Amino acid sequence: MKGLSLIVKTISDFVVAFIIIFGAYIVLYGHLTPGGGFAGGVIIASAFILLMLAHGREVAFSKLGERAAHILDSAGALAFLLIGWAGVVGGYFFMNVFGRGEQFRLLSSGMILPANIAIAFKVASSLFLVFSALAIFRRRSFRSMIEGELR
Amino acid sequence: MSPVPLFVAIPLGAAFLIPMLGIWWKKSGEVLAALSTVILAVMAILSIGSTAVTHHMGGWAPPVGIALVSDGLTVLLLIAVNVVAFLCILFSLKYMTAYSGLPKYYSLFMLMVAGMNGVVVSGDLFNLYVFLEIASIASYALVAFGTEADELEAGFKYLVLGSVASVMILFAIGTVYAVTGTLNMADAAREISLRFSGAGAMNPALLLAAAMFLMGFSLKAALVPFHAWLPDAHPSAPAPISAMLSGVVIKSLGVYAICRVFFHVFGFDPNVTSSVILANSMIWLAVLSIIIGGLVAVGQWDYKRLLAYSSIGQVGYVILGLGVGARVLATGGPRSLAALAILGGLFHLLNHAAFKSLLFLSSGAIQHATGTRDMKQMGGLRDKMPITSATTNLAALSISGVPPFSGFWSKLIILIAVVKAEHYVVAGIAIVMAFVTLVYYVKVQREIIFGSVRGAVEKAKEVPAAMYVPLIILAIVCVGFGLLYPVFGYRILEPARDALLNGAEYVKLVLG
After folding, report:
1. Residues 11-70 of B with CB under 8 A from A
2. Is the pLDDT of residue A148 over 70?
3. Which of chain A's residues have a Cβ under 8 Å away from the Cβ of B56?
4. Interface pTM, i.e. ipTM
5. Predicted local confidence at residue A141, as pLDDT
6. DSSP state of B53
7. CB spacing of A93 vs B58 below 8 angstroms
8. How far apart are CA A1 and CA A4, in angstroms?
9. How confident is the model at residue A98, as a pLDDT?
């Protein structure tokens, strides 16, 4: 059987959706409550890492492909840079030129919300990629390791 | 809007576009990297003679907001970084075809350029640290890009030592923040000079910060005794990366940061007793680097390793000029003498960026043609590769200080300043070691360029034009810097020297 035991698999299938929702909440409300793009991105990445730990690489990659993660990784950073460029309209790089909206509402504080979303994509996909790079080596059985060394 | 943020935004954009487009378009790296570096190089050259400006990120004025500052010193470094980066990309187009994963290479290269430009334009200590990390981490990966055992080992060694330096720098920044309550360099400088000028001694916490800054930045600049990573990292990296590392990375992350932090933030004030200690330690590090870098280089038979040790020695000369200038300021000597010493150091920095990147690129061309870096297996390259040998020869003459090439004039200015400042022993060492430099470059000429054709050279052919054109451009620069100093000196070097001398001007520029 690939991955961990049935109990771990069932429970992690159950919590993954909630972890992602919680991460999205941390990202979207980053300008109002503690949190933000980085923290939320780490939480979202941890959901995919949990999938990889419980089910193995293949299942995790079927949810978020390596190529898609690479594209999201660059796109998040580019989106953040573009938000910075948008400020040039106001005369300064990263100037907050978007509408500020009503205080304490979800759609407020101008560029902070889109910047948080961009950072979340970048952080979530990069951390997932870092973890998948660490998991690139497959485990050999102890016996074959010993035999390999004896040879 | 001033163009200063573009120096960071353009390479950063290219760095993230390249891997994304690289999935569908195999040539994305070559095209985008060449395009963005040529734009950056043109922008850097156009910024010569521009007035010093500050750009407030997001419209928030310092000390609250983040400021990007472009003064004379920044322009000098921007020219060196971006022109060398463009020529290295030009060289890479052909040279790097032997490697796989090219979009990653160009992406990392552009990240490194973004980091260096960021260090140079940042007006804020913490942003300086962040950009320094961007440039360093990209260079760790680039050193190991070949992923052979040697290269991975060199990359890992560089990673560990570089991280130690980064921790030191971060700790020093934290200490400065704790004492002054600000991260903006101009604001910290004002705070330090208000509190400690005339007080006789500086706060011991600030002295600790200065010591850690000196250690961290010296490690990035590869001054002896912090040089251990360089002789492994430079030979292992692909040739264009060696040229970038030696030509500009150690200067923008090390020498520039030392200049900015010590001349502007801490200041060399004759009323503060500790500033003499700081200046003296710069001179000590410089003398050690000149002696050890030079003497060890003589014994090397790996061409790129010889060049790497030579970099240590030559950066020593740069720091010697700056350190003597700092000591003259700290002891209340004549400002004209300090100006001369600093000018010599900055001139040597610019020259070294030109001839050392030329030498490393030519080592890449030679390795491409002969397949070896071992000088014992070469000889008579003049007959087989005339253009590469001629440019190598010119750079070797220039770095060993033969008149009328550029290296002679910058070393001469440094030596005159050292003698006038009455450091006779240091001057003697610098002169003797200048001859040692000549000795190991004569060895390069004898073993590689002249003599009869032997060993691996027999099958060598001249490299394609895409590889020798950057060599020719850099060779012209080497000659030009030597002969045309009156034409460009007052436009590039003198604003940089004045920026370093007048710390108060910098504070006024940033804080208004």
Report:
1. 12-13, 16-17, 19-20, 23, 55-59
2. no
3. 92
4. 0.86
5. 61
6. E
7. yes
8. 8
9. 83
